[in-house]
Write a structure and sequence with these properties.
Elements: E1 4-8, E2 13-16, E3 22-23, E4 27-31, E5 37-42, H1 45-48, H2 51-61, H3 73-79, E6 85-89, E7 93-97, H4 118-121, H5 123-126, H6 131-134, H7 137-156, E8 169-172, E9 177-180, H8 205-209, H9 225-241, H10 256-263, H11 292-305, H12 316-327, E10 330-332, E11 342-344, E12 364-374, E13 377-386, E14 392-393, H13 395-398, E15 414-419, E16 422-427, E17 446-449, E18 454-456, E19 465-471
Antiparallel strand pairs: 1-2, 1-6, 3-4, 4-5, 5-7, 6-7, 8-9, 10-11, 12-13, 12-19, 14-15, 15-16, 16-17, 18-19
C-alpha cells in the first residue's frame, strides 16, 4: 500500500493513504494508514495559512477544546469530530478522528456511505433504507437531545458552528447517536468570523435577508450563536416530524430563486403557524400537538416568536431540556408493525399512536412528580413520567438538584415493571426509596404502583415524591 507522510506542528509524523476519500468546498480528506484518523488538507493554502486562521485552529485544539476536559472530555470526543492536530506538511491542514463505523451504512445499496442526516429526514430517502437502519421515534428523540447538548457545549465556550445542517451532523438512529463534524472553522464572536453562511434550508432568515450587503455593513447579519439556534431548531423539527418547518405551498415570487430567497428570508413562515395557515401543507397527520407540552412551545418560540427575532429563539439548553422531558412522556405503541413504535403521552388525550392510529390497551402508571421547597411540604412539579415495562428512572428523576447532563451517570436507579395485572417499581440503586406505607424498599425489592398512592424516591432534602395515577 502506497503511503505518504504528514508532519504535524507538534513534531508527530503520520502516514496517510494518498487517495481522496472525501472532498468539500474547503478540504480534501485522506485516511491515515491505520484508518483511525483522517488528514484534511485545505484547498486554498494561502487563505488557510493566514495568521488569523492559524490562530483559530490553535485555539480550537487548546483553549476551546471540550475533549480535553478531565471529567467530560470522553463524552464530547464521542459527540464531536474534533481536530487532534495541525498538519504542516505536505500542505497545511488538520488531523481529526475518523468517524466511528456506526456512522456508515452497514447494509443495503449504500453500504459504506456516511449517514448524512438527509437520509433520515426525507420520507422518500427513508423508504430506500433497510428498516434496520431507520431507527424508531425514541431514537430520534435521544439523538436530538445529544445534538442539542453538543451545541449547548459549543455555545457555553463562546463558539458557534455557523454551518449546522444535515450535512454536518451524521446520524446513527438505531443507537440514538449523532456526531457533529466540520468543527475546524467554528466562529468565535468578536475574534474569528464565519467563513460560510451555512447550508440552504438551515440558514437563518436574517442572514439570507442581508446577504446582499457588504460584510462591513453594520446591518449585515452573519452566522453566530443565534443562527445556530435556528439551524438546531430546523434539525430537531426535521428529525421528529420528517418535514422542513418553512417549506410549504405558499408562493412568494414567480422566479424560483427569488421565491426561495423570500421563503427562507424576509417572508419565512412556519408551516404550522397557529394564526397564519397560508403556508400549511395538506394532510398533516402528526402535528405540534402530538409532540407534547415541552416541544410544542419550543417550536412556536423558534418558528413564530423567534423566526424573525433572533434573540427570542430557544437556546440549545432549552432544547435539551424539552427533549429530555418529552422522553419521560413516551408511550410504546402496541402495534408491532408501527415503524415509529413510540408516541408522546398528552394529558387528557386518548393513548393513541399518531403514526399508525393504534390505541393502547390496558392501563399504564403515570408518576406525578412533587418537590419540597421546605422539608415535608411537597408541591406538584407539573411534570411526570409515564410507566411501561422496562421504564427506567434515573438520578435526575429522584432528586431536584441533579440534572440530566453529560456529567450525570446514566444508569437506572429504579425500573417500572408489570406484576401480574398490576405494576411495580423495583429499586435498582435508590438509597432511600419509601413505599406508600412508609416502609423502606431495599435495593432489589419493589413496591406496588397503585392509583392515588405516594412514594418517596429519596429522603434527601432535594428528594422527590411521586403520586401514582393510572391511565386511561
Amino acid at each position: 500500500m502506497k503511503t505518504e507522510t504528514a508532519t504535524l506542528a507538534d513534531g508527530r509524523r503520520v502516514e496517510f493513504i494518498p487517495t481522496v476519500i472525501g472532498e468539500g468546498g474547503f478540504k480534501r480528506v485522506y485516511f491515515t494508514k491505520d484508518r483511525s484518523s483522517v488528514v484534511c488538507l485545505y484547498k486554498d493554502q494561502a487563505r488557510a495559512t493566514e495568521p488569523r486562521q492559524l490562530q483559530r485552529v490553535q485555539k480550537l485544539l487548546t483553549d476551546f477544546n471540550p475533549t480535553l476536559h478531565a471529567e467530560t472530555g470522553k463524552y464530547f470526543a464521542d459527540l464531536f469530530c474534533w481536530p487532534t492536530g495541525i498538519v504542516v506538511t505536505p500542505e497545511f491542514g488538520i488531523l481529526a478522528p475518523a468517524y466511528p463505523g456506526n456512522f456508515f451504512f452497514g447494509s443495503g445499496k449504500w453500504k459504506g456511505k456516511e449517514k448524512n442526516g438527509k437520509w433520515f429526514v426525507s420520507p422518500k430517502l427513508r423508504k430506500l433504507l433497510p428498516p434496520a437502519e431507520r431507527g424508531d421515534w425514541k431514537c430520534y428523540l435521544e439523538l436530538c437531545a445529544r445534538m442539542a447538548r453538543g451545541v449547548r457545549r459549543m455555545h457555553m465556550a463562546g463558539l458557534a458552528h455557523s454551518d449546522l445542517s444535515c450535512n454536518n451532523v451524521l446520524l446513527d438512529p438505531p443507537n440514538g447517536r449523532c456526531v457533529i463534524i466540520d468543527v475546524d472553522s467554528l466562529v468565535v464572536p468578536g475574534l474569528y468570523p464565519a467563513e460560510v453562511l451555512g447550508t440552504p434550508g438551515y440558514i437563518a432568515p436574517e442572514v439570507i435577508a442581508t446577504q446582499h450587503l457588504s460584510e462591513h455593513d453594520a446591518a449585515r447579519r452573519l452566522p453566530c450563536n443565534y443562527t445556530d439556534m435556528h439551524a438546531l431548531a430546523v434539525l430537531v423539527y426535521e428529525n421528529l416530524v420528517r418535514r422542513h418547518p418553512l417549506r410549504g405551498p405558499k408562493v412568494h415570487h414567480t422566479d424560483p430563486a427569488e421565491d426561495d430567497k423570500l421563503a427562507y428570508g424576509t417572508k419565512a413562515l412556519f408551516v404550522e403557524h397557529p394564526a397564519d395557515t397560508t403556508n400549511r401543507p395538506g394532510g398533516l397527520t402528526v402535528t405540534l400537538d402530538h409532540l407534547g407540552p415541552y416541544l410544542k412551545p419550543a417550536f412556536v418560540k423558534a418558528f413564530v416568536t423567534g423566526l424573525h427575532d433572533p434573540a427570542k429563539r430557544p437556546t440549545a439548553a432549552e432544547w435539551e431540556s424539552a427533549l429530555n422531558k418529552t422522553a419521560d412522556l413516551l408511550v410504546p405503541c402496541g402495534n408491532s408493525s408501527c415503524e415509529e413504535k413510540w408516541f408522546v403521552y398528552r394529558e387528557g388525550q386518548p393513548l393513541k399512536c399518531p403514526w399508525c392510529g393504534t390505541t393502547a390497551k390496558g392501563r399504564l402508571p403515570v408518576l406525578e412528580f412533587y418537590y419540597a421547597p421546605k422539608p415535608g411540604q411537597f408541591r406538584p412539579e407539573g411534570h411526570r413520567v409515564v410507566g411501561y415495562n422496562g421504564r427506567s428512572l434515573h438520578r435526575w428523576h429522584a432528586r431536584t438538584d441533579v440534572r440530566n447532563s453529560e456529567t450525570t451517570p446514566g444508569e437506572p436507579v429504579a425500573v417500572v415493571q408489570p406484576h401480574g395485572d398490576q405494576w411495580i417499581l423495583k429499586n435498582v440503586k435508590l438509597e432511600s426509596l419509601i413505599s406508600p406505607r412508609g416502609n423502606p424498599v431495599p435495593e432489589g425489592q419493589a413496591c406496588l404502583l397503585q392509583d392515588g398512592e405516594e412514594i418517596h424516591l429519596s429522603r434527601h432534602e432535594k428528594g422527590r415524591m411521586v403520586c401514582v395515577r393510572m391511565v386511561p
